[in-house]
Amino acid sequence: MTRTAILVGITMNQENFEYSMEELANLAEANAIDPVGRITQKLDRKNKATYVGKGKVDEIKSLADYEDVDLIIFNDELAPSQIRNLEELLELEVMDRTRLILDIFAERAKTREAQLQVQVARLKYELPRIVGQGEGMDQQSGKGGLKNRGAGETKLEMDRRRIKKQINQLNKELDGLVAERQVQRRQRQKNEIPVVSLVGYTNAGKSTIMNAMVAEHSQSAHKQVFEKDMLFATLETSVREIILPDKKQFLLTDTVGFVSKLPHNLVKAFRSTLEEAAEADVLIHVVDVSHEHFEAMMATTEETLAELDIIDRPMIFAYNKADLANNVMFPRREGDSLYLSAKESTGLELLVDMIKEQVFNDYKTVTLVVPFDRGDVVSYLNEHADVLETTYENEGTVLQVNAQQSDRMKFAEFIQSETQKEG
After folding, report:
1. 254 is an annotated ligand-binding site residue
2. Where do the annotations place GTP binding (predicted)?
């Protein structure tokens, strides 16, 4: 059932305030909440007690009564005392931006790991906000002198201990899942398969790019990831193997999207999931170039990556949804930037070429002479490498192969000559 809400935000002359409020409306709608009104205020600093000034609180209450809304949503994270004060004054449920995002993540989380990560973040958010039931009831009834305060405080401490214990238990289970993924990651590194990670703002089209590449270049084309035109459609990290016509292969990972004012606890909770991006050979920063605030979205993504210490990876900028943008020529490459439309599968091969330049730069074309009794070597190269030419001479099978460094080292005894060639 859809609930109704009034959105409230304050601006302290920061850039992109209007965009931030628009995004708050989108977040509300993603959580089945219909924003029916909006109130903003320009302040030098936030009111410590009520976030907005007293006059604005009265204005919010008047509009809330007129529109008969279910709750009020604020565009920043509120202190526990601010939430309590506002709910008392407005006589309505108060939700801040952080809780709104946490609720969306809780709804979208599908894998056990994502569910655990969201639960940890929610509990850490709730911990300083719980109020002892006994204490709250006493305040409401006007009772509760010194005699009853002790019981209320004891209940409060019990609740806090319970939540801390729950967080520890969830973290232990998470540690086990993280350890499993680290084993898988080490195995991939051992196999020397490059990793390419898609990163970017939520709903920029990362999953669409992954699905288009899987459909074109994967033996498991049926393993499409979930994609939908909505915020936070993907919370899990998906990994797919991409095999190119020349037998080169890499792993493509699709990560959770970012959003402005992403809760710190949520970033911390998803740190282990985003390690896939931290250890990637190249990042593809996917940008919705059709969005009027795409530059602010790019800045948010870069800030979040920096918070995760993901700052030294080679990066390709994929300006997606170019078909929806005004006056954008595509497909078009400019240095490390590419304008494309994943939905129309236009520009994807250019993206593949850019990936190849980054992750297959250790390839060289070599000529090998393999004795006829070493058919195993010929079979391996035909299966795993790009064999450009095969001829036969008295000494054995002559192969011209575009091979990576590990294969060149493995079969060094058979190499007669080598020349540099781009991957």
Report:
1. yes
2. 200-207, 254-257, 320-323, 341-343
Residue 381 belongs to domain with CATH number? 3.30.70
Q: Please report whether residue 380 resides in a domain.
A: yes
Mean pLDDT of 111-122: 88
User: Span 370-387, mean pLDDT?
Assistant: 94
User: Which residue range is the domain that position 253 belongs to?
Assistant: 193-359
Q: Is 234 annotated as a binding residue?
A: yes
Ligand-binding site membership of 207 (annotated): yes
Confirm whether residue 421 is marked as ligand binding: no
Tokens of 265: 């606890």
Is 164 part of any known ligand binding site? no
274 and 391 housed in the same domain: no
Same domain, 279 and 402: no
Query: Does residue 185 form part of some domain?
Result: no
User: In this predicted model, what pLDDT tens digit does every residue of 365-377 receive, in sequence order?
Assistant: 999 999 999 999 9
Give the model's confidence band at 164: pLDDT under 50 very low, under 70 low, under 90 confident, else very high: very high
pTM of the predicted model as reported, rounded to 2 decimal places: 0.80
Q: What is the DSSP string of 338-399?
A: EE-BTTTTBSHHHHHHHHHHHH-TT-EEEEEEE-TT-HHHHHHHHHHSEEEEEEEETTEEEE
Q: Is 320 annotated as a binding residue?
A: yes
Q: Which position has the token pair 């850019």?
A: 354
The rounded distance, in Å, linking the Cα atoms of 249 and 374 is: 25
Predicted confidence (pLDDT) per residue in 273-288, tens digit: 677 788 899 999 999 9
- For residue 134, say whether it is annotated as part of any ligand binding site: no
- Residue 188 is assigned to a structural domain of this protein: no
Chain centroid to CA 239: how far? 13
**343 annotated to a ligand binding site:** yes
Q: Which of 50, 83, 108 is the last residue of a domain?
A: 108
Number of domains into which the chain is organized: 4
Instruction: Judge whether 320 lies within some domain.
Output: yes
**Is 202 assigned to a binding site?**
yes
State yes or no: 380 annotated in a binding site: no
Q: Which of 53, 77, 108 is the last residue of a domain?
A: 108
How far apart (Å, rounded) are the C-alpha atoms in residues 317 and 166? 41
Phi, psi (deg, nearest 5) at residue 404: -80, 165
206 known member of a binding site: yes
Residue 350 shares a structural domain with residue 266: yes
Q: For residue 42, say whether it is annotated as part of any ligand binding site.
A: no
Is residue 203 marked as binding?
Answer: yes
Which range, of 146-160, 190-204, 273-287, 344-358, averages the lowest pLDDT? 146-160
Same domain, 259 and 283: yes
Residues 214 and 273 in one domain: yes
Q: Is residue 323 annotated as involved in ligand binding?
A: yes
Q: Is 342 known to sit in a ligand binding site? A: yes
